[in-house]
Amino acid sequence: MSCESEQYMSLMNKVLDQEATKQEEEALFAHLAVCDECRVHFNELKTATELLRRLTHPHLPASFTKNVLDQLPPDKRHAIRRWGSRHPVLTTVALCAVPMSLVMIGTRRQWKEKSGYALVKMSGDQT
């Protein structure tokens, strides 16, 4: 289109989607009255939109989803990964609990060593 196509294209879409204000509709129709190219394009868009609105939505049987899922190949992931994907919160807690436990054990050992008694007596210690 040779005219200000960006402005009028967005107006055409807004009018067809029934989102345009009265002033926007009047501005578009005033332009369409003088611009043959835009008028032809708007009529094509309007026809396509009306055809799309006439389409019916297919009514699927209740077992459609189950039938499709049954036809998919079996899940070959490892059992631990499968469990982890089903229980993400428990997996996260387990993955955080192990390192935190090790940190706590190490901190406790260091605290005991500083407080005057050691867990393991080394051969060179005089305590």
Automatic annotation (TrEMBL):
It comes from the Bacteria. Pfam families: zf-HC2. Gene3D superfamilies: Anti-sigma factor, zinc-finger domain. Residues 6-39 form the Putative zinc-finger domain. InterPro entries: Anti_sigma_zinc_sf, Znf_put. Belongs to the zinc-associated anti-sigma factor (ZAS) superfamily. Anti-sigma-W factor family. This is Anti-sigma-W factor RsiW. It comes from Sporolactobacillus mangiferae.
